[in-house]
Description:
With 269 residues, this protein is an alpha/beta fold. The chain has helices spanning 8-14, 67-79, 93-98, 113-116, 159-165, 177-185, 196-205, 234-248, 252-259; strands spanning 44-49, 57-58, 64-65, 82-87, 104-110, 119-121, 126-127, 130-135, 150-154, 170-174, 191-195, 211-213, 224-230. α2 crosses α8 (234-248). The longest helix is centred in the C-terminal third of the chain and has 15 residues, at 234-248. The relative contact order is 0.19. Mean pLDDT is 86; it is low at 6-30. InterPro entries: Solute-binding_3/MltF_N.
Amino acid sequence: MNSRRAMTSFAAGALGIALTLTACGGGDSGGSEGGGGDGEAIEKITIATSNDAPFSFTDDAGDLQGIDGEMINWIADKKGWEVEVFVSEFATLIPAIKAGKADAVVDAMYITDVRKEEVNFTDTWYQQGEGMVVPGDSTMTNRDDAKGTVIGVQTGTTFIELAESLEPKEIKYFDSQAALLKAVENKQVDVVFTDAAVVAYSLVQNPNDAIKIVDPYEPYFPGLIGAAVPKENTELLDELNSGLAELKASPDYMEILTKYGLTESNAVD
């Protein structure tokens, strides 16, 4: 699965997140103005994001939030950088930094060989893939337990492939993640597979004992997340990696992950 996630547009709406496009549009964001690569000390970093919860988004006050958002804020604070936000569609984030509209993509981007042909990636920020969601009283503890059961998936997602691989009794299709989770709650299905970080954050926002995420869980579609920078800006790459190492050595790293519903399973050394 090369895309970061399967249902981004739903996530923001379903979670009620007011997404303010504070830095959207325009090619004059000045990504290269203070983001390194010219031998001058970095004073400002302009990050590119699709403004998508729970990964990297601005709140009503225009402050950068989210898993990746809080990580870059932490690094920038330690480095003494100002952070600016450039918003664009996810598919255009890499072209944006290559065009100098921003300095780095900070938006839960999967590190893939295809993308590494265009940009450099930092060390891994965290890992995440699909989540296995079951009724609150279910005894399922791993993916094999889902074999021969009734499995729910969202129409059009890659998780259909996963469901089919488990030789289910039946696959039921739903048009939204909200409908998917409701099907688990009502026990219309035995289990569903969907984006782990999105559903984890959904449960943080709206706790529901009728459903639970199986944890620990090894994803069928694992993804390593990193920030992307233009290939020529090795100065910024080094600074981000040193800041990331400092963050991982701090308890703030797990605090950020757990704030958005992630666990030790999502952390990386």
